[in-house]
Write a structure and sequence with these properties.
The chain has 207 residues and is of the alpha/beta class. Helix content is 34%, strand content 22%. Helix 3 runs parallel beside helix 4.
């Protein structure tokens, strides 16, 4: 025989049922909203990745020039009237402490450029000024007794030479000096690219 429940008991049971149902619906709503947010975030992340976006890109302003960081670690900058964009390992602000004598792109334009020493380091300059010079070629500096190979011998009276001289002693600083048409780059191992960039910025009239 089934128990006979009072009207009050029936109302309490109905209230509990509705309350439980309401809690379940709220939880489902929260879970579905969270799931949508997660899926949407993942979709946005994949879209940014596929489009090649660089969220770590930086832009630095130096005397009106904008330097934009690239994914390969270089800085890209453009000069009004130039034939192409330029690339450097450092910004001008990072190499201001390195002394460089006056030299301009106009002096190098339409002239053969000869270089000696650390070819990899000096290539940062050559690759940037290549469109403006007649040609760039490795050469043997007359006073460099360690020069080997079948290279043309050049001096400072008629040709520009870029000479890398490594200086690892702690009491000397990296610098660039000039003797007639020779540019001597003296640098510690840790500042080779900084010194070549300092020269590059001087050639381009930035520093």
């Amino acid at each position: 025989m089934r128990d006979i429940k009072t009207k009050e008991e029936i109302e309490k049971k109905e209230t509990r049922r509705k309350t439980t149902l309401g809690i379940v619906l709220v939880m489902l709503l929260i879970l579905s909203t969270a799931g949508y947010a997660i899926l949407n975030r993942e979709s946005s992340s994949q879209s940014a990745s596929s489009s090649g976006g660089n969220s770590n890109a930086q832009t630095i302003d130096y005397k009106g020039l904008k330097f934009e960081s690239q994914e390969n670690g270089l800085w890209k900058f453009e000069i009004s009237g130039a034939q192409q964009a330029f690339y450097s390992s450092y910004t001008p602000a990072e190499v201001e402490h390195i002394k460089v004598p006056f030299v301009s792109l106009q002096e190098l334009a339409n002239q053969p450029i000869y270089y000696s020493g650390n070819v990899l380091a000096v290539s940062e300059i050559i690759s940037n000024i290549a469109p403006y010079v007649l040609r760039a070629q490795e050469a043997c500096y007359t006073s460099n007794v360690s020069c080997t190979g079948d290279l043309p011998v050049k001096n400072c009276s008629a040709n520009f030479l870029i000479i890398m001289e490594f200086n690892d002693s702690g009491n000397k600083t990296s610098r660039v000096t000039r003797n007639e048409n020779c540019l001597f780059i003296e640098s510690k191992d840790s500042e080779i690219l900084k010194t070549t960039d300092a020269l590059l910025f001087r050639i381009l009239g930035i520093n």
